Amino acid sequence: MQKYAHFKGLTIPLLLLLPQLMITVVFFYWPASQAVWQSFLLQDAFGISTEFVWFENYRDLFAKPEYYKALINTGIFSFFVALFSLSLALLFAVMADRQIRGAEVYKTLLIWPYAVAPAIAGVLWIFMFDPSLGMLARGLQSLGVNWNPRLNGNDAMTLVILAATWKQISYNFLFFLAGLQSIPKSVIEAAVIDGARPMRRFWTIVFPLLSPTTFFLLVVNLVYVFFDTFGIIDTVSGGGPSGATETLVYKVYSDGKGGTNLGGSAAQSVILLAMVIAMTAFQFRFIERKVTY
Amino acid sequence: MAQVTLNNVKKIYAGGVEAVKGVSFDIPDGGFCVLVGPSGCGKSTLLRMVAGLETISAGEVAIGSRVVNQVEPADRDIAMVFQNYALYPHMSVYDNMAYGLRNRGTPKDEIDKRVQEAARILAIEPFLQRRPRQLSGGQRQRVAMGRAIVRKPQVFLFDEPLSNLDAKLRVQMRVEIKKLQRALGVTAIYVTHDQVEAMTLSDKLVVMNGGQVEQIGVPSEVYRKPASRFVATFIGSPPMNLLPAKVDGHGIIALGDALLQARDLREDLATGTAVEVGLRPEDIEIASEGAAGSLPFDVEFIEELGATQLFHGQLAGKPFVMQAATGDVAAQAGRLWISVDPDKVHVFHAESGVRLGKA
Ligand SMILES: Nc1ncnc2c1ncn2[C@@H]1O[C@H](COP(=O)(O)OP(=O)(O)OP(=O)(O)O)[C@@H](O)[C@H]1O
Ligand SMILES: [Mg+2]
Q1: Which of A138, B26, B122, B346 is geometrically suited to a Cys-Cys bond with B142, CB 3.0 to 4.6 A?
Q2: Chain centroid offset of residue A113 CA
Q3: Is B63 on the interface with A (CB under 8 A)?
Q4: Where do the domains of chain B lie, and which CATH numbers do they carry?
Q5: Global pTM?
């Protein structure tokens, strides 16, 4: 029995794929290849002459301590955002899955942050934590915490982590909730009869059964933190104070801004691209092998 | 091992659905009780209340001498086999069986001993390191059984454990479950809507309908003396024929022009009382034309079942089925004269459907 419709020849399949292929070419392959090309070029300060320099831009990059700082910042930033957004989302999903009263309202509310544009999310958090205006910042100050993300690098990092986490929770929540609801009720009931108390049940049954979801979300979150947090960082801290919140993707922007170091900026984006490709490839391999049961 | 007692047990779900409307019965230690009934009659709900997976709205459930209404499922000393097996998909067969013992802190070598023993009894030793998805339906079923027996519980609870298997495997597993339960001597409650499973497995049969018990008894008694029209048509295959009739004196039923003797009939019924008479397809005998108590049966078509044949047709203007051993009756359409042993004539009240038997 034939399960799929089969087309004769290539014309129709190609025609059907064309719109998607064109979008991919125009918005991905073209800019990506441009970036690769740019990363091998060096422009003089006035943008008059351009020279092909092979890997000099990359060599420059790895010679600069700022680049390592941005790398470390990205590491800290992504670790905490992934940790907080995954664990909080899982906690919320477990609670929503218990079908508490008003679960629908609760679910809808949790999904809202995802619909908020990054820049607006950033502004929101700036307001709440603004040292002179923000109510949360004042609360902190009244508790004796000397809170000032504009001057203190750690405060600034905390703030961008909070903002980015808040935005990502909804997405993770949806996936965790779907994952929880796909676990058959009778499996949980069998564990109840088998004498597993709630905490043990969670760690020995629920969590392992969610591991494909968790792993998928981990990679998605890392990709999110690597690329998509630009808007939040730009509005919340602008990479400051003195580069304390400058991540790899933000550095691509600030180095390329004004066209002062286009080649270096391009080299950075090529490295980022390679990292994400590696993560995605790793995810596919891993999902195929280990996490499935 | 323990007896199980249900005392006026009720279940009202949150939405106001009254799924179980006051059920009482008890199962002796080591007994095999089957709950049977049509879909939605509350069998699973009742079983789940015994398991502790549903709260008990009213009444009492006792296991042994202990009322368990407020006892956690894990502490009721029961094991349950689910319809979809509910195996832990991420654990090996061995771990699936060991899980309940580990949660209870059983020593490692004791766990190993019990799992190996259960695996031997159920012939699943070769699969101990496999994951459930690498097993066939029948093998998964065995693992689910294994998970129940390693715990050595007081009571086994089964919720339609065989309904996902093919017909042949179902018969085979049915026999094995019965053997296993006998050998272990554990009290069992088994839910099914399959009346063959119900008849063959039980030593106590509970027929349910609409959240209530219709009849409780040993299977042969439920078959021979169904307490209501519902039980009469539910137990037995093909189902019992039901024909409208009237009481015509002591122990006599008028069915159209013919008069039929019924031995199990209340004596205080006025002549002319409307009743329904029930005749099982397998109880019908061939009579000679015009003999006393013989009924004319117009055969329309015949169904071949191999060892037996089903004769479908009309009797007194109603659809009627007769079952006969192949070759006993000429397989052709046309009129047959039939009769039924007075011991095998069932009479039910026309409206309420209760059996009008002798006290
Ligand atoms: N969680 C629930 N909330 C509300 N009503 C329920 C719930 N579970 C079951 N019911 C209702 O209770 C009644 C009995 O359900 P139950 O599952 O016990 O039937 P059953 O006899 O096991 O049927 P089946 O043979 O189809 O499994 C049904 O009318 C069902 O709709
Ligand atoms: Mg059921």
Answers
A1: B122
A2: 14
A3: no
A4: 4-230 (3.40.50.300), 243-349 (2.40.50.140)
A5: 0.81
